[in-house]
Amino acid sequence: MSKKQKLTKSILCAVMAASVVSISGNAFAYTAIDPDQNQGLIYSDDGKDLGTIQDRDIIATDDMALEAGDNGLSAVQLKNSGTKLILDNVNIHGGVSVRNGAELTLQNSNAEAGAYYTDGHLNGGTDFKTEGGTFNVINSNVNSTVYASGSDDGNNTKGILTFTNSNVNADKNDYEQGSIVAEGNAEIILNGNKDNTYEVGTFIGALSSEDNKYNGKIEINGGTLIADNLRALVDGSLVTPDEYGDTEQEDVDALKAHILKGGIVLQNEGVIQTKTGQIFANGIDTTSDATVLASKDSGKVTNDYIKYEGGTINFTDIKYSQDYLDSAKKNMADVGKTNINMLGTLVDEKGEVVEDITVDQAVENGNVHVDTPVKADENISSLVVGNGTTDGETQYSNGSFVASQIKVGENTNTIAIKDGQTLGLGGKGGELVTGNKDNLTVTVDDTDSSLTLGREGYNSENTLTANVSINQGSLNSVSSANTVNGNVELDANTQANIIGNSSLVVNGKLTANEGANINIGDKNSAGTLISENTNLNGAVVYLDPIYKDGNTITDGSKAGLVFGSEEAGNLNKIDGKLVVAENSTLSLGTTDTAIAENAFAKTGLTWGNGDNDVLAAAYINAPQDISGGVLVVDKNATKDSAGSLNNGTVKFANNSLLMVNGEALTDGKVAISGVTDAQIAQNTEGKQDGAKLYIDNAKNEQSYTILDGNVTSKWSDDNVVSDNILLGFSSGETANTYTARYQNVKDIFGDTVVADELIDKTLQTNDEKQKSSAAYKFFNQAASDHYNLNKDSKATALNSVFNMGELAGVNYATYSMSNTMTDSVADHLSIAVHGDQDSDVWAKYIHNKEDINDIELAGLTADYDATFNGIVVGSDFYKNGKSTVGVALSYADGDISGNNIASRTQNDAEYYGVSLYGKIDNGDSAVLGDISFMHSSNDITQYNSGTEITASPDADAFSIGVRAEKAIKSGANGKFVPYIGARYMHLGTADYTNSLGINYNVDEQNLFILPVGVKYSTEIRNNDWIIRPVAEVGYVWTMGDRDVDQTVSLNGAFDSFGFETVDNGSFIGKLGVEAESDKIAYGISYEYQDSDSTTANKWLANVTFKF
């Protein structure tokens, strides 16, 4: 490879091998790793859409990487155009590579670098990279080097790596200091929000391609790059040759020669947090107060690796002087449009902390933000941000300024902004204006003037306690969470702009007038407006932030508006033009925008720009009257889209969604009344892109009127859904009234749900008593998005209640405990252990932990843990020659618990047993036998879909068994004892009914058990004691009715299905030691049992008294 290729692959760890699991179509499977194949965990290059892989770990361990050879090991690699994959909620350890036109989306996930080896030695870590692919990282955390370049297939396809609402930590992982690099025909786009951060350890920057034909670029559009050593990170001075000789000094020199000036673009909502010396020629020397005061001139901006198109730089120097601030402001303005925030403490010419600055000083600072409050004259009644001569009543600023806080006197009651001047308030948070005694009024009185709340680069909570009147000009919310404790009024031809992912909450009355515009979101960012008493008087509310790939409904603009008030008699009467455009959601009748977001999550729809996706939505929490306004929900709408529409018009365009609260639409109430014209988009042929309607909390046979008035346009029945997957909707020819009716379970789930007929008959009944039953309520909840968000979890919830007995291990645990009792009898009688039994009394304590996985039930698999604690007590009451007869009693309690995606099942069980046993002892051989009975009493509780379901089944196991043993001497004191046995078991569960009224009838089982094994024991004599170590290995075959049928019934309907109880065989291994004298014997042992679905660990202690 060339030096350039070697450089970017070695120094910057832009390394990606092939992968370990091949994907084809929508299926994939893990395979054993063969180091010679040099493949990774997920790999595809066949040009197919692979769908979504979710909820799993994708781990390329360091040992795997070492074994994989010279090329290291990838966790994920996609190649070639057309190859697509979505990874959702995964944990990745290892490299990820997207190459040559492939597309990968990683969302809601965590990823970290793995080990990268060359020639058998560790050479740093793997990376996240694209080489000519499209790689989108959304709502995720990445701890790895990040790399982008053009493709290596000869086409030099552009590589794009976009981070949306994600964190990147390329500072330090387990292997190296990381980097963020865009080389050649490539872009890395950082679209974070105010909470996202980026950290780098070695290098961040853009490189030209080796032939200098293409230039890379890194855009910081949002989120914060934290870099106290920024200069060293961008100029390559931290990149050094490695200890192995894989990267030499000439490689480092080549890297530095290709670093692009201006390759990092700071713009929009992007933030860089650093120190002044990392940007300007002269940084602040904070060694002492004297050195801070001596730092007066910042010098020019000399960090030209950054292009200052916008955004904000937060300087973290702990102290600074006004002289330095003036210089920095001027020099930054010379190179671009980037704002400056000084996060440190302002000191005066004596080095003392400045508690506040004057209005004149704030004006001098211009748009440079300092955390030091601005103090107005104490005796004035009015502060005017405008032109004029200050007198005893009014102070004039004669210029614009920004302030983290304004301190006013107690008599100040007005802040007026006019004459084209502007006022910016906000920063570190808290009350924005303090000191006034009476109510405060803030006015904007000039077309070119504005009041701005929040400060770019800050994420804080700001409160303005005042009445705000925008008589001319604008009100802006540009960052942070901003609250106005007072009324807000917008006059005609004014506007409010809520952008920068900020929020504006009006805790008073929001009043606008015709001609005013309230804009929520812009081409770079979203915004949120909350108002509990809204009167628009014909004004326009326009929601329209740009959609970025990977945005969800929570990332878009939103508004929660309650129109009017009960006191005024105009509650929920819309009197303005509401336009909901791209990437926006409007909630009406509530100020809680999360209700709409939660409702959308239950629709099963996708938020996005696909053909059938939703990208504009409205939520109706309480009935609305539109007779005095207009509602447009259209992703392509402009702010003027409602201008030509008459009051009473509603428009729902393609890819729109209306969500309504069904519980608010009872007793003939209408979601939107006063409608004179409705324009509702229908599906395009071959697509499902028409306007959609979601009715939350819908009920069977309930009718919901969405629009009133004589309108003919309506939502297609196929586009109407609810939170209950079993409900379908039908409407009349023209009426906008939709009636919910249950559909057959099989039509929705196919054969996935095992008792579909029972559910159908329960839900489709006309019997009012059945409609109030617990089962009716449960089936509705199990099918509802309120409890189970996706189709699989709904099916699992329904199947779990029908399988609740075996999810609680009723049959299996009874089988297991019966075998535990009979094994204890066999151990007591075995010739491998203590001597003859003659009037002995014995006892054995048992602690058994079992892990049961993937037992096949009806429509699902069972996974649960079982813990048993019990005791077996026996007596050898009869002895005659070779024959011994005895009886044993047993008791155990069991704790069984398991979970699946929809339910949690617990069983508090008790087991009672009796065994009549006997033995014929021939010295070096013996025949053992028993007749045994085990009864189990189970108290089951299942937590499923918001319901606690209980049942108390009983089960019985009757068995008869025989075993033959033969002792074979080994050495002076040892012996091997092979054995073979046979047992018949009859297992039955009595009919039972759960708390929902569902009856369970389980067929009886006839099982045949064949144990084969060998024991070894040896004797060590110590005075009057014999110490006897014992070991055993064996295998137990189980034949017969391992699968059993069950019938469930309710209200005369029934369904039958089968489930698996036990595996066909299990391995047994056991180790123990026994000590015996002529009066007593006692011992301890451990037993391990393993089968396809069961792993058991038993700890046993026994004692025998000899009489």
Describe the structure.
- This protein is mainly beta.
- Helices cover 11% and strands 47% of the residues.
- The strands form nine sheets. It has a 27-stranded parallel β-sheet that branches. It has an 18-stranded parallel β-sheet that branches. It has a twelve-stranded antiparallel β-barrel with strand order 68-69-70-71-72-74-76-79-81-84-85-86.
- Helix 1 crosses helix 4.
- Mean pLDDT is 90; it is low at 1-40.
Distance between the termini: 87 Å
Q: Please give the count of helices.
A: 15
Roughly what is the average pLDDT, rounded to an integer?
A: 90
Query: Describe the biggest sheet?
Result: 27 strands, parallel
The geometry reads as globular
Low-confidence stretches: 1-40
- What's the helical proportion of residues? 10-25%
Structural class: mainly beta
Keywords:
27-stranded parallel sheet, 18-stranded parallel sheet, 1107 residues, mainly beta, 86 strands, globular, 15 helices, single chain
